[in-house]
Automatic annotation (TrEMBL):
Protein name: Uncharacterized protein
Protein's UniProt keywords contain Membrane: yes
Superkingdom of the source species: Bacteria
Transmembrane segment boundaries: 6-24, 56-75, 677-696
Keyword Transmembrane: yes
InterPro entries xref list: Aerotolerance_reg_N, Class_I_gatase-like, Double_TM_dom, Ig-like_fold, VWF_A, vWFA_dom_sf
CDD domains per record: A4_beta-galactosidase_middle_domain
Domain VWFA residues, every copy: 94-197
Keywords annotated in UniProt: Membrane, Transmembrane, Transmembrane helix
Amino acid sequence: MTFAHPWMLLGALAALIPLLVHLFDRRRPRPHPFGPMAFVLRSQKRTASRLKLKRLLLYALRTLILLALPIALAMPEFRRDADAAVAVKGPAATAIVLDASLSMRWSDGTSLFERGRDEARDALADLRPEEPATVLVCTHAPEAPVAPAFDRPRLRQLIDEARPTYAAADLSRCLDLAARSLEESPLAGKRLVVVSDLTAGSLRLESPAPTVKGPTGEAVRPEVVLRDAGRDALPNHALVDLKVEPALQAGPRAFQFTFTVKNHGDAPFKDLEAAVRVGDTTLGKGFVDVPAHGTAQKSLTVRFTQGGTITGEGTLTPDGLAEDDRRAFVLAVPRPLKALVVNGSPNATRYRDEAFFVEAALSAPGSPVQAVVRDAEAGWREDLTPYDLVLLLNVTAPDQAEAAKLRAFVENGGGLFVSMGDHVDPEAYNTRLGALLPRPLRLVRTSVERDDPSAEDKAEKLAQVTTEHPLFAPFTGRAEEGLTGAHFYRYMLLEAEGSGATEGTNQVLATYQDGAPAVAVARRGKGRVALFTSTVDRDWTDFPIRTSFLPLMQRFAAYLTGSLEEREEQRVRVGETLALRPEGTQTVSTVKAPDGQEVPFKPQPDGTVVVGPVEQPGTFSVLGADGQPVPALAFASTLDPAESDLSRLPQDTLAAHFGEETVKASSTDAERPPVPLWTWLIVAAAIAFFLEGTLLRK
């Protein structure tokens, strides 16, 4: 048993007063001069017995009153806690470390963090007046606490204002920082009070326990008090991954959402609802069963009615840690595109027609492109305003008026694709369309005649492909074979960079084995231009019959119209930074978190913008110079899946890590008496006082 105010026990000496009164107040029997002595003696004996019993009861009640009151004022407790350690070891400088990691958001009506804050307040209140203290709120990026001091109100304010984060916290790092702050106190005693749920990922058990410098500079382990804010079991399931892929089999603008669900609990979960939501609208849902300590997947196919940048989230049935039951996504859904395909070499035989393979690719299931095919004469007469993209396939050079119309179309945001062929005159193209082309055309090079028996061996192939660029991003691994396996018998050579007015404004994304450009792209005003130096039919190459031709043409259409998903690889977790890549006239003036708060960002010399670190999950919006959102730059932040594992660290593991001298202070309601012991002592004293008065009146 321990006492908060042991000096109050001196008042228990007053319990001797009833004893002294009882001893010195013994009455002697008086003689009675009555005759019938036998009757008197019998009456005296009965009266003496009653008086003796009454005196004994009064003595017991008065002693109880005088013992109960001083013991109650001493505030006894039947537990060994930080005060017990103080009573044995003396005063100590104390650092209170409050875990503010994501797992502390787990709640069964009251969150673990709220319980942890109560524990931290109790730990502060338990300190003796002569003990200095400091407080460290442990986050993913903790700051070193100030030296221990006696400003209790300020420390309590720090605890009251603390909030849980959405990231994992390195508790081992926080304990090291707290231990360093304790070295600034002259007191010999050092104490670390750890308030945490003590889940599996909270401590790095492979690292040494925290130490402080002793009087002679040696490393000494401080006293460690573990105040557990958790529960014996914290069941939790989590959406650890949400993969979004085009579902071409379901039509244009259809996507497959694959949920990966992890169960960290000992019991299986049945019929968890998995749903795809945009705002308050549920676009698709299903149910998934997850075994105990297992993983399951669920796929949902969603078809969007319109294109553009879509922000939403995948959700699961919420549990104690609802934050890891949803994942935000930012999806660029291809908007319907209208393309004008200008066929420079029509042919009555379909597979010999210049536009045959391109039209088939753009009209394939899942393609967002509506292609309109015209011959060269009709094509130049078309009003380009309704179109998003123009494809010139082996077309003779336009006249000046037509070229001016095409330049205006591109500079206002349209896309232009140009492929070569026998009808392309390099000099005429350079004269009339040179301002649009990524590089001036030079001449046609023949690597081998198509009917040559060794044509496949002598034909050129693609050697260098920039798979980091969004246009070629999917063509990696085995998919790259569809590009590098194509044979090119003829192709147009381009002038070297710097030989024309387009210096520094174009990129070569693919080259042949001899180094000649195969694909070059450029920005012109608000639009984009792509130049393919071979043909899109089988006259100069067999590329149109390769498996990569169809998806590449669709990606050309998406890239040239600005609707190609270019943020697919931009993944950011809470606590990390992200590099945004504005394009063209895009600028960044403000970045806003899901709760509306502004997020710091810094422009870089290479044109990127570093945002963060981000502090919460969800969708982040980016505002341009005009203060309006730039949907193409929006991004989503996700949680670290490791923080969803809420399995508890065993007590023997904690004792082995911190040492056998560790003090354990539990905060579970079952271990806390509902009414303090001193309260019952006061109640007992009050009852004894009432009974004593009743006996005196009789």
